[in-house]
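Structure in, sequence out. Go:
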């Protein structure tokens, strides 16, 4: 809410070469008034912003010189230097645009000389041979053609040279890109250069007029040869799938544009492009130059992406306006859309799908342009009832719930354009109101949309387009209660934005319609009845979520449309508030009233809160709302006081009193959401106080000179400012009082968060800036101690808030003067860092991070360091003091850790009981994360510390890894075959496992003291430092209690902290790009060692806590490696990936990979390697890995080991669950589903188990996360047509599997035969549902599934029969439901039949029941014909009533 300061413009200063500088000095006059003097003063400045002012003086100065009418040599030289300056500036430098703008106003007498200068300088640029300087030259060519007359003239003069340069640069950069295959950082830069070069070529052809006559030039001219060369390059780019898709897309534009410029006669261009798209090029009828340049496009095996981008280029580069291309253009338009429809069923890559949707939307725009003056045949082909429009609608229906938001947006554009196309095809003008009754297409469209369930997100956008097209009156005539229907679904968060947008479209349209027809103001009553009354009902009676979303989304839009409706709403709610004040579970009318007033004030519909409670609501109501039983009423009332659309509105005395009243009763809120809202609203209030105080300070200063009318407050500004100070001071006192020892977590969280907001909003004053309040002035020793005591809280969130608050305070407030107290705190922190309570080490970390900022810390550290460090001098700055202190603290922790690791190597048990190692490592990581490691001053001192840190980490890991890598780490049962690991475990077991029992899970073992285990050093000043350690008697008799769980916790937490430390080091420390680098701290070898460490522990650890957290550290490493300029490091993830895949593929018994525990850390390892791959690239690693895994996950021969298959299934599950892979993983969903379903038939339990887990993940990936208790809720389903259009490969597979299942349901012998994959198949098919939109057009018929699903209904398993009945519904078309029911009823046995099965009867009746239910649930229209059909069904059913007779005997 605070006002953001405008960011200062950063402008790089221009410079010139020494020779040009000497020229200017020689030409400058004594008075300093000529152009040379001006330029000399300009280039001598180092500030780019100041240079802009001088550049703007160039043209005015030349206009004065223009009076002589001649261009003298001095000015000619200056113009030459200006040309050089322009070309030397970077393309994003504001000076370049300012200079171009100035030179556009150059007097005419200087134009010729200026153009010559630019031509000469540009020629020098074009002659460059440095490949990595080509980008700068290309940028200059682009700049010259962008609103710069001199530059454009220069390029025109050098057209031949420019074309030759573009051709040469694209060829050389393309070759360089091929050489650096695999180095994605260099390739990314080179591909960007290719993209810019392609775009500049397109711009050149579009903006240079000579290209319109290019066909007249001979084929031997250099210009023509360069054009052919460029066309050949772009054709190659277009067909090269290894390039970025943006390059391919731009190349598609370039190819069509060059063909348009070069091909003659132009009338044949549409036919030529049609033949390319249809892959029917007649090579004998096209020119040789075209065949030579575009031979790749004339083949029949053109890739999908090439065709797609050719369609895009055709739609973008050809002139579709006013039917300029005639009938051949119309034929081309139809050919494009048919090609796009074909591609739609073939393309499954998400990025290409997005391109396709945009191109289809572009096609509809082009079709609209053509239809404005087209032939009758085209209008017949593009009206609403045509097959093309039906297929477009089918595309909209199957993609309007696509996971990609951008693609869903394109479906809305396509639908809106379909309506426009239909209007033009019918020959109606914009002024004609489309008649709904007369237009069957629009009528059917409206009815079918309204019949759709409201959970379909695409319905909202399309209905909005339809409202804009036909008006809300027709929609309300079809569905009068539609406002209430939409408001009902606003309890679902995923639907709220769509529903609120549709409602806004509707009520705005309705208001305009009523106003245009009304003769007086009574129309507002009808509008209120339609839109406001349902809103008030929801606000008073709706459920909590529904009310919240309606208030947040719908109410602001309604008030913005009709601010005058506020008084109407308040009047009704005021009347109801007396009777319905609300309760703990209900807001009542009072809550609705406060919500309306809060929203109105926040959006500027109330002048101030004072107006609200004086004119609209009493102050008693405000107070009642602040302590209401319902939390949201309290929040809304607080929001009314805190929020305002003006950040400078003065906070009144009443508001401040009520805020204090509110704080008294609401700090201890148990709801995290309520606490967050309270803190957020109070921060807005503090911003208002700060911003309005600045205005009050200015008013106070101005009152000394005159007495202006004060618009903000009627009292003197100084009075208001003093009230602000008193209020803030009183508020802070109340907050500090709430931090008493033993106060609850909610109270502490609220108080610390609000205090943090105060410290942030009211800054320390700098210069002449005044602040009304400073928190530091109210911090005394007692309050400082209170904040320090917050570190002892068991909740980490409280520690974080206390630490952040202390860091926001001025350094003078938080500095310790007593060195003894500082030493005591540091000693306590060290003791806590070795405590056996995990939260103690967190306390130690925050305490040490706070002490690091103390200037006096080094003197307290000397007693704890073996290696003495020189103290910082007085002249050292704060940053280096913090760095020095951090270094010394880490050294101290490192020395302690080294000693403890040495003891743990002798006895891990004693370490677990007395000094768990993970606390020290946690503190080291915390200290490193707070330091800016990229700007270290003490690099030479950090290097040995980092080396020692890595060494100790590896030693610590070696101590605890035998437990973590045990086959059964939870119980330490030594089952490992590896001799080294087994012997290490036996050593540990000899310490903790009793000889005769297995009770170490629950009972502690009393251990005798060992020489290496000394508890004497534990400081008694820190009580209960180790709850699991107990000291009894004298030094000779010391015992400690320990269980196996304690050892395991010590081990896995230590592994966790080591992994996070190594990940932090890789993420934050600068690397040495070369061995002799002076600024890097991590060497290449060290990074490789860290990678090997992660690989070993991720692939061999069995404990989930250990490998999950090792994964977190490994992700940090892989992200750094993928951005690393060092090629050997950059290729490490790829090498590691292939190594582990090879190990997974072989079933070597000696492999240490874990085949149980869902493959343990192996999926995490591969997940980290793939998720860090750059998303803007081709994702080649993902593609190759998925291909390998899909192959491994398939059925195997009985002779082969199933271990690789289990690993592959588990890895696939992890990858499909990873949200970071996004839509890149979707093309493999179908293959994954096949592997899961086939794996379920395996005789091996491990394969079936992994297949089940993979299938569950795929169901979530396809149908979305479960959003409700209903397992088969339509929110987690999709229509059959949408499902099979997204995953067409599953159509034949599911059909084949279903047939196999149906054949085994019941055998002639009557034996029970349960096919293992029946459940999975029916589970998928049961999540589909019918749509009124199905059947408009479908390439995949649902009919073949129906007989097999019916047969599955005979299963002897009840659950299978039920699922078969549910799965049948989406496969039966609406009009076929009665016929299908009659068929099913006919299959029921007659009373004369002697042999039948009850399972068959039950399954058939279930299917009939679900089909009848679908008729009512989906709101199918019950016309007379349909009712007659159902009557016939009833007649058929009566003949089978004998089955329900009570005398029926069991057969």
């Amino acid at each position: 809410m605070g006002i953001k300061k405008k960011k200062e413009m950063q402008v790089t200063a221009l410079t010139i070469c020494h020779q040009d500088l000497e020229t200017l000095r020689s030409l400058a006059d004594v008075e300093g008034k000529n152009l040379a003097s001006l330029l000399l003063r300009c280039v001598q400045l180092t500030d780019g912003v100041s240079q802009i002012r001088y550049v703007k003086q160039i043209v005015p100065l030349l206009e004065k010189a223009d009076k002589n009418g001649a261009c003298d040599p001095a000015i000619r030289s200056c113009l030459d230097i200006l040309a050089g300056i322009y070309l030397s500036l970077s393309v994003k430098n504001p000076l370049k645009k300012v200079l171009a703008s100035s030179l556009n106003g150059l007097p005419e007498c200087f134009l010729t000389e200026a153009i010559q200068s630019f031509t000469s300088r540009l020629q020098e640029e074009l002659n460059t041979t440095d490949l990595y300087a080509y980008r700068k030259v290309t940028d200059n060519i682009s700049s010259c053609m962008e609103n710069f007359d001199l530059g454009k003239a220069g390029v025109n003069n050098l057209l031949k040279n420019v074309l030759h340069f573009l051709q040469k640069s694209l060829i050389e950069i393309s070759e360089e890109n091929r050489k650096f295959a695999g180095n994605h950082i260099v390739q990314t830069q080179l591909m960007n250069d290719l993209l810019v070069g392609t775009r500049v070529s397109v711009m050149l052809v579009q903006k240079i007029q000579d290209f319109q006559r290019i066909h007249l030039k001979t084929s031997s001219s250099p210009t023509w040869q360069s054009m052919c060369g460029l066309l050949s390059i772009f054709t190659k780019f277009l067909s090269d799938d290894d390039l970025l898709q943006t390059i391919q897309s731009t190349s598609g534009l370039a190819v069509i544009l060059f063909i348009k410029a070069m091909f003659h006669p132009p009338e044949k261009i549409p036919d030529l492009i049609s033949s390319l798209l249809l892959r029917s090029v007649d090579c004998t009828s096209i020119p040789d130059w075209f065949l030579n340049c575009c031979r790749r496009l004339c083949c029949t095996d053109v890739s999908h992406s090439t065709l797609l981008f050719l369609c895009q280029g055709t739609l973008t580069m050809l002139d579709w306006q006013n039917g300029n291309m005639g009938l051949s253009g119309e034929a081309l338009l139809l050919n494009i859309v048919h090609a796009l429809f074909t591609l739609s069923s073939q393309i499954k890559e998400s990025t290409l799908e997005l391109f396709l949707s945009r191109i289809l939307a572009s096609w509809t725009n082009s079709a609209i342009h053509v239809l404005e003056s087209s032939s009758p045949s085209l209008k017949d082909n593009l009206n609403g009832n045509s097959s093309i429009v039906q297929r477009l609608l089918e595309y909209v229906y199957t993609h309007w719930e696509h996971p990609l938001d951008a693609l869903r947006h394109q479906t809305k554009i396509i639908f809106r354009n379909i309506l426009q196309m239909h209007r033009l095809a019918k020959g109606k003008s914009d002024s004609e109101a489309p008649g709904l009754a007369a237009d069957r297409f629009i009528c059917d469209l409206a009815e079918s949309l309204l019949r759709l369930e409201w959970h379909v997100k695409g319905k909202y956008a399309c209905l909005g387009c339809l409202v804009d097209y036909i008006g809300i009156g027709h929609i309300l005539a079809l569905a009068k209660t539609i406002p209430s229907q939409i408001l009902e679904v606003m309890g679902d968060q995923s639907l709220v934005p769509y529903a609120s947008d549709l409602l806004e479209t509707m009520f705005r349209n309705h208001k305009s319609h009523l106003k245009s027809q009304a003769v007086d103001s009574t129309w507002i009553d009808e509008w209120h009845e339609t839109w406001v009354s349902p809103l008030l009902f929801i606000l008073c009676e709706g459920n909590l979520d529904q009310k919240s979303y309606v208030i947040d989304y719908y109410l602001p839009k309604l008030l913005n449309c009709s601010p005058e409706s506020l008084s109407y709403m308040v009047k009704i709610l005021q009347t109801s508030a007396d009777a319905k004040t609300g309760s703990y579970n209900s807001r009542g009318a009072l809550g609705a009233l406060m919500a309306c007033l809060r929203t109105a004030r926040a959006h500027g519909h109330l002048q101030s809160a004072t107006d609200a409670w004086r004119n609209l609501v009493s102050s008693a109501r405000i107070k009642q709302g602040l302590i209401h039983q319902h939390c949201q009423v309290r929040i809304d009332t607080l929001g009314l006081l805190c929020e305002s659309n003006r950040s400078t509105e003065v906070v009144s005395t009443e508001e401040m009193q009520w805020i204090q009243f509110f704080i008294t009763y609401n700090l201890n809120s148990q709801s995290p959401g309520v606490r967050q809202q309270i803190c957020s609203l109070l921060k807005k209030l503090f911003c208002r106080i700060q911003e309005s105080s600045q205005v009050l300070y200015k008013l106070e200063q101005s009152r000394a000179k005159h007495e202006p009318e004060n618009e903000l407050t009627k009292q003197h500004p100084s009075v208001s400012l003093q009230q602000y100070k008193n209020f803030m001071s009183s508020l802070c006192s109340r907050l500090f009082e709430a931090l008493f020892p033993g106060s609850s977590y909610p109270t502490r969280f609220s108080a610390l968060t609000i205090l943090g907001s105060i410290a942030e909003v009211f800054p320390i004053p700098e210069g002449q800036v005044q602040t009304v309040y400073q928190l530091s002035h109210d911090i005394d020793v007692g309050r400082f101690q209170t904040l320090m005591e917050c570190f002892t809280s068991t909740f980490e969130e409280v520690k974080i808030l206390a630490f952040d608050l202390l860091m926001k305070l001025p350094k003078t407030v938080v500095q310790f003067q007593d060195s003894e107290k500082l030493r005591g705190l540091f000693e306590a922190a060290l003791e806590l860092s070795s405590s056996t309570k995990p939260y103690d080490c967190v306390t130690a970390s925050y305490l040490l991070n706070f002490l690091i900022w103390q200037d006096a810390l080094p003197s307290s550290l000397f007693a704890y360091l073996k290696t003495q460090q020189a103290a910082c001098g007085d002249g050292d700055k704060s940053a280096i003091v913090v760095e020095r202190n951090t270094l010394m603290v880490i050294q101290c922790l490192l020395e302690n850790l080294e000693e403890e690791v040495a003891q743990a190597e002798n006895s891990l048990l004693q370490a677990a009981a007395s000094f768990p190692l993970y606390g020290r490592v946690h503190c080291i990581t915390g200290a490193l994360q707070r330091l800016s490691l990229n700007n270290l001053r003490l690099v030479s001192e950090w290097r040995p510390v980092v080396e020692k840190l890595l060494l100790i980490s590896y030693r610590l890991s070696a101590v605890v890894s035998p437990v973590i890598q045990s086959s059964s780490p939870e119980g330490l049962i030594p089952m490992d075959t590896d001799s080294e690991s087994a012997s290490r475990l036996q050593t540990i077991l000899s310490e903790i496992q009793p000889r005769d029992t297995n009770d170490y899970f629950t009972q502690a073992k009393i251990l005798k003291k060992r020489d290496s285990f000394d508890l004497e050093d534990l400081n008694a000043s820190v009580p209960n430092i180790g709850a699991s350690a107990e000291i009894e008697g004298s030094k000779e008799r010391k015992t400690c209690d320990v269980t196996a769980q304690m050892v395991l916790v010590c081990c896995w937490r230590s592994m966790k902290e080591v992994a996070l430390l190594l990940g932090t080091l890789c993420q934050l420390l600068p690397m040495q790009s070369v061995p002799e680098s002076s600024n890097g701290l991590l060497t290449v070898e060290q990074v490789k060692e860290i990678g090997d460490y992660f690989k070993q522990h991720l692939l061999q650890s069995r404990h989930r806590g250990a490998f999950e957290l090792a994964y977190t550290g490994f992700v940090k490493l892989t992200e750094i490696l993928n951005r690393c300029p060092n090629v050997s490091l950059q290729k490490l993830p790829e090498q590691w990936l292939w190594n582990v895949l090879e190990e997974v593929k072989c079933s070597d018994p000696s492999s240490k990979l874990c085949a149980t525990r869902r493959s343990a850390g192996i999926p995490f390892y591969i997940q980290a390697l793939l998720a860090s791959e750059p998303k803007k690239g081709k994702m080649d690693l993902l593609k190759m890995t998925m291909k390998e895994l899909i192959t491994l996950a398939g059925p195997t021969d009985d002779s082969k080991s199933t271990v690789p298959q289990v690993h592959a299934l588990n890895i696939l599950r992890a990858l499909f669950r990873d949200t970071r892979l996004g839509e890149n993983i979707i093309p493999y969903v179908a293959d994954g589903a096949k592997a899961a379903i086939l794996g379920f038939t395996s005789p091996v339990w491990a394969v079936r188990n992994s297949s089940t887990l993979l299938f569950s993940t795929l169901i979530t990936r396809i149908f979305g996360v479960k959003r409700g208790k209903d397992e088969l809720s339509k929110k987690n389903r999709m229509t059959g047509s949408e499902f099979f259009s997204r995953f067409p490969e599953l159509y034949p597979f599911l059909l084949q599997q279903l047939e196999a299942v149906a054949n085994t349901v019941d055998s002639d012998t009557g034996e029970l035969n349960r096919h293992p994959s029946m459940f999975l198949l029916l589970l998928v098919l049961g999540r589909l549902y019918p749509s009124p939109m199905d059947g408009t057009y479908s390439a995949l018929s649902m009919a073949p599934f129906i007989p097999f699903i019916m047969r599955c209904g005979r299963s002897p398993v009840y659950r299978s029969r039920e699922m078969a009945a549910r799965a049948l519904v989406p496969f039966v078309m609406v009009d076929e439901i009665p016929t299908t029911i009659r068929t099913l009823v006919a299959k029921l046995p007659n009373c004369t039949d002697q042999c039948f099965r009850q399972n068959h009867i039950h399954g058939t009746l279930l299917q009939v029941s679900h089909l009848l239910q679908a008729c009512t649930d989906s709101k199918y229209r019950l016309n007379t014909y349909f009712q007659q059909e159902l009557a016939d069904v009833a007649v058929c059913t009566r003949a089978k009533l004998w089955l329900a007779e009570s005398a029926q005997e069991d057969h």
